[in-house]
Amino acid sequence: MNAGIEVRGLSRTFHTTVRRPGFTGAVRSLVNPERVAKHAVTDITFDVAPGELLALLGPNGAGKSTTIKMLTGILTPTSGHARVAGVTPYEERERNARNIGAVFGQRTQLWWDLPVRESFAILRDIYAVPKAEHAARLEEFDALLDLSSFWDTRVRHLSLGQRVRSDLAAALLHDPQVVFLDEPTIGMDVVVKEQVREFLRHQVTERGRTVLLTTHDMTEVERLAERVVLVNHGRLVLDGTLDEIRRKFGSTWQVRATLADAHAEVAALPGVALLQRTGPQVVFGPDGPDAPTVHQALKAVIERHEVTDVALDEADLEDVMRAAYVHGEEV
Ligand SMILES: Nc1ncnc2c1ncn2[C@@H]1O[C@H](COP(=O)(O)OP(=O)(O)OP(=O)(O)O)[C@@H](O)[C@H]1O
After folding, report:
1. What distance in angstroms lies between residue 231's CA and the mean position of ligand 1's atoms?
2. Any idea which architecture 5-245 has in CATH?
């Protein structure tokens, strides 16, 4: 069985009733309601390989949550289909629930009035996890997320960072193959964010879980994801590695180097232009659509020249993504 995610031509349209303004408008809306269709997700196709962490990115209202809701079985698609660890989520919700874990950073699935550890015990019973297995997993999660310092506290009294760490543990205690994370580190301080990222990396690399992550935090994307899928206005605009996306939309990098020999000849590098030369100081930039990434260019420069100093300027991933959202549909 494939423990990944397959999404094929997935679409979801919402039909809402428009309220006309004013009293007569309200009466007219009652008598003759005006229905409008909102195409939240349109014909999206992508895969997440087993054991891969993919970031699903897009501006507000792009359709990310709607996509995740279809993959977790909360919503049924209008058309298209999806399989999550071999199961059609909206047709077999219960079976799907056993295979997946989900964390929505803005909401909790824990019992508000119970201490965290009791919530974990209830989940153990719900998912019928053997006691020894549950204890071993909790020990592993505690080592990475430092849960024991607050797991006797009621959920309502936890800080945001403590609550989300508890939610993450709760979502993974039944050992799901596939994990959905909707803005898991929103509002956390940098230390807790890093702890959570380390935990997620461990779950992907050591436990082989398949993760679909949505976030607006580009540092998170850089630290965790190799591949990203970009959606805008409900449509998929890009599916590729961070390097590919940088290459397409982040064409503003520069490598500045000081050559050991002020008269040395500068080697021609494919896809790299020599922008400036003043004695030993040289500045390189990307040349054409097949230009390398800044890191590849830096490596090539160092390999071919003896340099005494080197610095690089790179387009911020936020800028790259902004360009990709705007121009992604054109490529
Ligand atoms: N139940 C619903 N009824 C009507 N429209 C909806 C419903 N749920 C979502 N939408 C609309 O569908 C579009 C996509 O929403 P969605 O929540 O999937 O976006 P998102 O990419 O997750 O955004 P954000 O980054 O702000 O969380 C939005 O225009 C939203 O208003």
Report:
1. 12
2. 3-Layer(aba) Sandwich (3.40)
- 179 alpha carbon to ligand 1 midpoint, in Å? 21
Burial of 66 (0-12, 13-18, 19+ CB in 10 A): buried
Alpha helices in the chain (DSSP H): 22-31, 64-71, 93-99, 116-126, 131-145, 160-172, 190-205, 218-224, 242-249, 294-304, 317-327
List all residues 6 or more positions away from 309 whose beta carbon is below 8 Å from its beta carbon. 257, 258
Closest approach atom of ligand 1 to CA 58: 21
| Arithmetic mean of pLDDT, 170-176 | 95
Give the pLDDT of residue 251. Answer: 63
Q: What's the gap in Å between 252 CA and the centre of ligand 1?
A: 33
Q: Which of 39, 44, 57, 65 to mutate to test the pocket of ligand 1 (most atoms within 8 A of CB)?
A: 65
Extents of the domains making up the chain: 5-245, 251-314
- Contacting residues for 136 by C-beta, under 8 A, at least 6 apart: none
Nearest CA to ligand 1 atom 28: 61
The pLDDT of 69-74, averaged and rounded, is 94
For the stretch 242-292, pLDDT in tens is 878 877 776 678 899 999 998 888 888 888 888 889 999 999 988 877 788
Residue 273: how many other CB atoms lie within 10 Å: 14
Measured by CA distance, the residue closest to atom 26 of ligand 1 is 60
In this predicted structure, the answer to whether residue 31 has a pLDDT above a threshold of 90 is no
Backbone torsion region of residue 85, taken as left when φ is above 0, otherwise alpha when ψ lies between -120 and 50, otherwise beta: left
Which pLDDT band, with edges at 50, 70 and 90, does 331 fall under?
very low
Tokens 């082989």 correspond to 208
Q: How far is CA 187 from the centre of its chain?
A: 16
Give pTM, 2 decimals. 0.81
**Angle, in degrees to the nearest 10, between helices 160-172 and 116-126:** 20
Ligand 1 centroid distance, CA of 46 (Å)? 19
Geometric angle at alpha carbon 163, from 162 and 167, rounded to 5°: 120
